[in-house]
Amino acid sequence: MKILIVGAGGAIGKIVTAALKEHEVITVGRNTGTIMADISSETAVENLFKQVSNIDAVICTAGDSATDNLSAMNKAQFMVGIQQKLWPQINLVLAGMQYLNDNGSFTLISGKMGELPVKGSSGKAFVNGAINSFVMAAAQEMPRGIRLNVISPSKVSDIGGDELTEAYVRCLETAINGKIIRIGYNNKR
Amino acid sequence: MKILIVGAGGAIGKIVTAALKEHEVITVGRNTGTIMADISSETAVENLFKQVSNIDAVICTAGDSATDNLSAMNKAQFMVGIQQKLWPQINLVLAGMQYLNDNGSFTLISGKMGELPVKGSSGKAFVNGAINSFVMAAAQEMPRGIRLNVISPSKVSDIGGDELTEAYVRCLETAINGKIIRIGYNNKR
Questions:
Q1: A 35-54 residues inside an 8 A Cβ radius of B
Q2: How many whole angstroms separate alpha carbon A122 and alpha carbon B90?
Q3: I need a surface site. Which of A48, A153, B28, B155 has the fewest CB within 10 A?
Q4: Does the keyword Cell membrane apply (chains A, B) (predicted)?
Q5: A24 near A79, Cβ under 8 Å?
Q6: Where in chain B are the domains?
Q7: What are the C-alpha distances in Å from B15 to residues B94, B108, B112?
Q8: What is the structure's pLDDT at B189?
């Protein structure tokens, strides 16, 4: 498969990139990677998909958010997660769904705080919740057999590389669509 | 109780306002209500809480989002929900938590599409998911016994007024905190 990995230089990105080395992997980052592109820019993402043809899968393992104690949070901090984790991933899907090969897949990233938040996590939690709900909704409208799922990991230090790799392979190679894959936790509320 | 109701002129707002008439209700809206205020403005919300003292509860029943078929959605449409439903409600909580009476409560609004989205709902779904996760996170950091919950209704035409009123009364009068109250659907995935 030809796979674009956005955020390959991050902790999760490194594990996933190493595990997928049998595939043709093209790394994308703002400042690093085979291709440099700012995925929050609609033009940049459109150009990315025009530049690299014949893509089977897009994996995004990147996305920042800012958080703090709630009483110290302000609008600018909430907007970091929207501008750097939520919108770029939506943007990847909106543009990429036109270009991906038939039966291709998108695998986005959210995080445990969206479902099981702790104190001081509001700036992360709301972004992760937004990504999960976006995936459940948008997966229903993917064209040409394309699938869309999201990996929701616990802290990287709390999860096993094997479990993580297996989850990404499941998203790439099985028929699952619209799923939230929880890594390192169960959402049993 | 002295209760601020934001969005009292909407379909849900009307039902709730009528049901709470035994209380001292102050309605707030951008263009209607006892007090006019744009709750997306940090200054306006801060002024609102300075102007009206001794508030026991804030209920928000308002918030717009834009949606369409996914292939027709663009950034501007996704941002409508952020600017008109997500951020204003976060803003209400951030400012109001400093002013509400001890043991007061916030009751926000999300919607079924956050958990059980259908085709064409991505622009609603992600906002509702964000609000749900924000509430679960932020409720853990409310000061002075203040509580924060969210009503997640199905379409107004599909829900009973009694069920809705009961849910709001539960948020006002019981000890629940950090809960998503589902109206007109069960989230059994």
A1: 42
A2: 10
A3: B155
A4: no
A5: no
A6: 2-183
A7: 26, 15, 18
A8: 56
Distances (CA, A) of B104 to B1, B22, B101: 9, 17, 5
Distance from C-alpha of B145 to C-alpha of A88, rounded to nearest angstrom: 37
> Is B137 in Cβ contact with A122 (below 8 Å)?
yes
CB contacts < 8 A, A to B, total 119
* Tens digits of residue pLDDT in A65-113: 999 999 999 999 999 999 999 999 999 999 999 999 999 999 999 999 9
B144 conformational bin, left if phi > 0, alpha if psi -120 to 50, beta if neither: left
Interface of B with A in 86-145 (CB under 8 A): 86-87, 90-91, 94, 97, 113-115, 117-122, 124-134, 136-138, 140-141, 143
- The yes/no answer to whether this complex scores an ipTM above 0.90 is yes
Q: Which of B70, B114, B133 sits opposite A125 (nearest CB)?
A: B133
Rg, Å, chain A Cα set: 16
CB B88 within 8 A of CB B137: no
Smallest Cα–Cα separation from B110: which of B85, B139, B87? Answer: B85
As a whole number of angstroms, the distance between CA B157 and CA B71 comes to: 28
Residue among A4, A2, A13 at smallest CA distance from A109: A13
